[in-house]
């Protein structure tokens, strides 16, 4: 296959979700002198702009820690860069592209996510690109498969949960989790080669949640999903605490105590409910104390954010576990940007699955959690003719 | 659910004003012998067993020198009742005061001294209950109480289960296989959500749950809106549009995207639009103001409904259960929640499962707590009916109207255990022909009809009393009328107030209202008079038939008579009018007043052919009116059946009075007299026992064949009934028109109602319905529907 048959640079893969746009950029490092000459100024400018910055405008971010060096994509060698910005800044992004003269180049972009549909018209009008829409789930699974094939250390990890306390039990047991450093369970982060994983349940937590059963790269389907996802967490946190960003919301949640907000079993029964194995510190109702004026006034922003996080996670955890049970899967892989910089959520989900399944079902996480759709698009682009 | 004590104390004053209402709510509490309590966060439910005394007619052989064929006396009868009341927690102190004052120490058994209580609030009131009532509260396990309550309602209360129509929001009542209620899932949406799998009375478990439940809506609603209580939150939600705050598939994709069958209005992320950007205003309040409170709570309500329905469907699939009942205060009368739960279940299960609700779901815990004290009162041995006169209407709004803070529901014990008619094809059996909750035209006609005829019944009530000018009687009759009209008005507003609205339920309601004001068997004297006349004419009629030599001719004459008798129906206005004019004094007039074309139908020829060829071993006849109907219409048919071969006949009559329908007691007395006239009857009744009589367990002109006297059911099996005859509009048209049997059946009636006749004609409901013309040439149309059992 000759180089001329390969798609022109720049190489992008995009995933335009409800909240965030994920962009993966392939920076070629094996360009011949001839190619460098041919490349021209525009392309060089763009490359410099993307690769040398860590933030773009007020909202764009390059996840430097996720960068992968010297990846072979097709027959080219290059670095993968991971960039994200809010979907609400999509129009600004297009303006920026025009400002950087990107519209003078002719190239192709492979895009997935709902935004691939929503922004198709405006993008093809503003830029001289061929816009290829890709199936969201296919890209997601292919992206994961590609990353697995790279066989990177530390891409996949899980929490080994161990405890010395025989009473330690319930994932709903929020008083334990509230005092997180003192949690009676210990979480050891362990890396794992992401292989021999099929079949698995893939839970993509973005604005909403999609749950897929993946039997192989080619054989997968959506088996469940819920509208209670990252968007719900952020929406409620914004409404309840006035926070402005996801990072702020997670930060608040990390410091909060949900038992000031949630109604526990002991608030209802005055103690345990042994007949149905509900211990007194189990959450019975999310926000269940907030109809009481005094409690409402006493609850802090942090408490409210924590309760919101737990409500969302409990629900996702439950659906993930039941999906795994009904499809006989022992592995649940959580991806999506909701988990970004969110160790608390990862531990909670690991803990919940471990407990609910008596250790049978394991929660796995991937470092490039939010970018698989974009990676999938990039691969399809790079391998296209 | 927790209790806000300060809130309760603030509201005590309002109670004194409603002392009369309290009395009404705690009806017969002075006879209470057992109590169960369920105290939740916003509502208290109390269950108690009690009894009241009612007057009823007792028939006996006539006193000597009496002109009457039998004498009618009054007797007092004690009717055991189960009472359930529900009110807001703020009334609890005064309710306890009322109970304290009215608790009869003589009635109070040991059981009453320790009350079973359930619900999150019950332990908080333990001391109050002990201090004031001197009763010890035994805390009962909440979940098992819910399940016991649910089992009881499913088995004992007709029309308990319904689902909601997503588009029209109308209730659709669903038949319940009372003998086969398990397994089911009970999804209780209280503060949180519990999903209970119930496999038998003893075997049940909590298989899952969710923390996102009723108190989540209540809590978030309190945080995000100005609503002061749960009801106000629901009211806000009713007005909201979630699409302004939810991130829809459309918002992400820009247009419909059907890869996974996702619709564009589908919610991708609940509250996903309510996110703030760095550029938004400085304060939380300013940000929150961008969204309408109504839209926010609507979004949360929908989120909860879809989440619960998703989890419930998932568990139902894993456990292979297709019956899902929903309960808990989140749902209580809230059509908005029901609508989205219904939609959720249908969406997640791909329309394979139905989302079922219970009319009395608010009482589950209290019923369960109560039944735990009453194990000796073996409830499996009794049947109950809902006393409409003593029960509140099930309203569509969550809030009770301000005029009455109490909701009550009363069951009265039937004298018999009622069971399915063994020959009934009871799968999907719905007794009633027309569901007036669904059929608006029919509803208006019948509500109007019952309203118009109320005067007739008021007059009859007065007339039934020995002293027609007695002031007290006039007052009572007036009260009966008022009470019935009130209920009719409520039914106009919420047609499903007592479950499925039908002609039968309207008739029952009238009987219950009459009984409420001590009017019973108001036609007993008229019935006796007509029975007397009928018996005087019986011999002639039988002789006349005997003398018809041509067998075909004789059967025709017998069935003409059988139908002509059915003209004598005091419940039919067209009959009353004709009778007033003196057009039906003689039986021959009745014979000439029916359309005879029925004998041209296949139904008729098939039936007569089968009877003539002695195909039947035992015929079971559900009779209708007393007097000419029974004596000159039915008895000649019975005689012919008994004598033509060795056939047996079972005659079934109502257990209690309804209009001029013959009651079992009257039937026995009449048969005894008839036996003196006819030796065939005499032999069959006294010697061979080829003629047996039973009471059917009913007190209605209509007949619910899923609730018949167990003794009759046994007899039907024992005598191997192979032909069932249902006679009259009530038993064969208003009910059982579509009933299917595991044997041959004849449904026959004289159509004495123009509206119904026109309906039959319009919808071609019956054979030769084209010739149904109401009172054409002054003749009543006839329904003669013989259905062969195809095994």
UniProtKB/TrEMBL annotation, chain A:
Keywords: ATP-binding, Coenzyme A biosynthesis, Cytoplasm, Kinase, Nucleotide-binding, Transferase. One of its GO terms (molecular function) is pantothenate kinase activity. Coiled coil: none annotated. Its EC number is 2.7.1.33. Pathway: Cofactor biosynthesis; coenzyme A biosynthesis; CoA from (R)-pantothenate: step 1/5. Gene3D superfamilies: 3.30.420.40, 3.30.420.510. It is found in: Cytoplasm. It catalyses: (R)-pantothenate + ATP = (R)-4'-phosphopantothenate + ADP + H(+). SUPFAM superfamilies: Actin-like ATPase domain (SSF53067). One of its GO terms (cellular component) is nucleus. GO terms for biological process: coenzyme A biosynthetic process. InterPro entries: ATPase_NBD (IPR043129), Type_II_PanK (IPR004567). It comes from the Eukaryota. Belongs to the type II pantothenate kinase family. NCBIfam families: panK_eukar. This is pantothenate kinase. It comes from Brachionus plicatilis.
UniProtKB/TrEMBL annotation, chain B:
Gene3D superfamilies: 3.30.420.40, 3.30.420.510, AF1104-like, Uncharacterised protein PF01937, DUF89, domain 3. It catalyses: (R)-4'-phospho-S-sulfopantetheine + H2O = (R)-S-sulfopantetheine + phosphate; (R)-pantothenate + ATP = (R)-4'-phosphopantothenate + ADP + H(+). GO terms for biological process: coenzyme A biosynthetic process. It comes from the Eukaryota. Its main location: cytoplasm. GO terms for molecular function: ATP binding; hydrolase activity; metal ion binding; pantothenate kinase activity. Homodimer. Interacts with PKM. This is 4'-phosphopantetheine phosphatase.
